[in-house]
Structure formats: structure tokens, C-alpha cells
């Protein structure tokens, strides 16, 4: 038969365990410790409080799970919306139609050839799809498809589209580094690009990837005033731009990728 003193000590130990378990739950650490204190070997008041806290913990977990699923839905819908906006550029410019999807596909292929993680590869693919979303702000004159001489206003619009794209997307926090890749896809290795004049390693890898694949798709796409170049012609131009405008290592890898895997439709 247990002594009264032993029961008092056991009760105090149980209360200390309960207090620690409640502190853990309050801190967001949902362990099974609180549930273990609901067993019949513990005093009734300990069991009742442990059961109440355990029930609260289960409800909190359920609400957190619901909130996480809700946030994923919002993220999915938001990304679909901005992607639809980017794709809608094709309604204003036949050349732009399909360009974002192809750049995204090329960028993903180059990222995989580099052995980047799935998460980083997805960021780069997403940036490829969205990289020209800032062109939604172009005037009708820029989108006219005419081979007219470039005036200062048109040049300003064209050089502004990375900044406009950044401004459109900047509040979508879930884009992560993809936002910066959109922002700097027209930067050059020699610092003569735009909008910030970044040089070499200052340009994030995702931005350097987009610069290569965007250039290739632009050259190989038919335009109203110019027939698209053959892959070999485009390869030659990419090579001539290596180390001045483009990352030479990425140019070599991308050429290997196209020669082995073919072009995107």
C-alpha cells in the first residue's frame, strides 16, 4: 500500500509535467506528453486539465491545417491569375503568344541540367513564364508589329518592362526568388543591361538563365518583319554574346541541351 507522502510527491511530479506540457503546447510544440497525462494513474484534476488542453491542441492543429490548405489555394489561384495575364499578352502581340511558356520550359530544362533543386527549378520555371508580364504596360505603338524606327519613348517603354513586371508581382511573397529573376532578366554580364546595371555574379543565377533562354527563343521565333533564325544561327549569336551579355558557361550548357533535347514547340 502506497504511503500518503509518496502520493503527494507523485501528484506534484504530475503537476510539474502538466505545467511543462501546457507551456510546450502554448509554444506550438504539440507532443503526446499532454495526452499521456490523461491516464487513469493520474489524479482526477490532472486528467481533466490534460484532457481539456489536449482537446484544445487538436482543435488548433485542425485550424492550422485548414489555414495552410487555404493559403495554398490562394497561392495557386493568384499564380494562375498572373500567369493568365502574362499569357494574355498574346492577344496584343502574336510574337508574344507562347513565348513565356517556351522560356519557362527552356529555363526549367537548363536548371535541371545544372542539377538545381526541385524548388529552385520551379522558381526559375515560374520566372520564365512571367518574365515579360511588365509588357502589359506597353503602348499600342510598341505592340503594332511594325518595323518602325525606335524612338526615345518606345525605347523607354521597352527598358521599363522589367521594373513594371517587378511592380506587378512584388506583393506575391510566395514567388520567392522568382521575383528577382523577373526583375533582372535583361541585365548583362558586362553591366550594360537594365534596369540596374548589374554585373556578372551580381546577377542571380536564375536571371542569367532567363537571359540565355529568352534570347534564344526571341531569335528563333518568326516575327511579322523577320523570319526566325535556325538553331545553328542562334547558337552562333549566343556564342558571340558570351561573357559580354550572357554567361558563357550557361550558353554552352544550353546549346548542349537543345542539341540533345530539341526545341520547344
Automatic annotation (TrEMBL):
Top-level lineage group: Bacteria
Keywords: Hydrolase
GO molecular-function terms, A-Z: hydrolase activity
Positions of the HD-GYP domain: 74-265
InterPro entries assigned: HD/PDEase_dom, HD_GYP_dom
Pfam families: HD_5
PANTHER family: CYCLIC DI-GMP PHOSPHODIESTERASE PA4108, CYCLIC DI-GMP PHOSPHODIESTERASE PA4108-RELATED
Protein name as it appears in the record: Metal dependent phosphohydrolase
Organism name: Pseudodesulfovibrio piezophilus (strain DSM 21447 / JCM 15486 / C1TLV30) (Desulfovibrio piezophilus)
Amino acid at each position: 500500500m502506497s504511503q500518503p507522502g509518496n502520493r503527494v510527491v507523485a501528484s506534484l511530479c504530475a503537476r510539474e509535467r502538466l505545467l511543462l506540457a501546457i507551456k510546450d503546447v502554448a509554444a506550438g510544440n504539440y507532443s503526446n506528453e499532454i495526452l499521456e497525462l490523461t491516464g487513469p494513474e493520474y489524479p482526477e484534476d490532472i486528467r481533466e486539465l490534460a484532457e481539456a488542453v489536449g482537446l484544445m491542441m487538436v482543435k488548433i492543429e485542425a485550424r492550422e491545417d485548414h489555414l495552410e490548405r487555404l493559403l495554398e489555394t490562394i497561392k495557386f489561384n493568384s499564380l494562375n491569375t498572373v500567369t493568365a495575364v502574362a499569357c494574355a499578352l498574346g492577344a496584343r502581340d502574336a510574337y508574344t503568344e507562347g513565348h513565356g511558356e517556351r522560356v519557362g520550359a527552356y529555363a526549367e530544362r537548363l536548371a535541371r541540367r545544372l542539377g538545381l533543386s526541385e524548388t529552385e527549378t520551379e522558381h526559375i520555371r515560374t520566372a520564365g513564364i512571367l518574365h515579360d508580364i511588365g509588357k502589359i504596360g506597353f503602348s499600342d505603338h510598341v505592340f503594332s508589329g511594325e518595323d518602325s524606327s525606335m524612338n526615345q519613348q518606345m525605347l523607354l517603354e521597352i527598358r521599363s518592362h522589367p521594373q513594371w513586371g517587378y511592380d506587378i508581382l512584388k506583393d506575391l511573397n510566395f514567388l520567392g526568388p522568382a521575383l528577382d529573376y523577373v526583375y533582372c532578366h535583361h541585365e548583362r554580364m558586362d553591366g550594360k543591361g537594365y534596369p540596374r546595371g548589374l554585373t556578372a555574379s551580381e546577377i542571380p543565377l536564375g536571371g542569367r538563365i532567363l537571359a540565355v533562354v529568352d534570347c534564344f527563343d526571341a531569335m528563333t521565333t518568326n516575327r511579322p518583319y523577320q523570319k526566325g533564325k535556325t538553331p545553328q544561327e542562334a547558337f552562333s549569336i549566343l556564342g558571340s554574346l558570351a561573357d559580354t551579355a550572357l554567361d558563357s558557361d550557361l550558353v554552352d550548357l544550353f546549346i548542349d541541351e537543345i542539341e540533345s533535347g530539341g526545341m520547344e514547340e
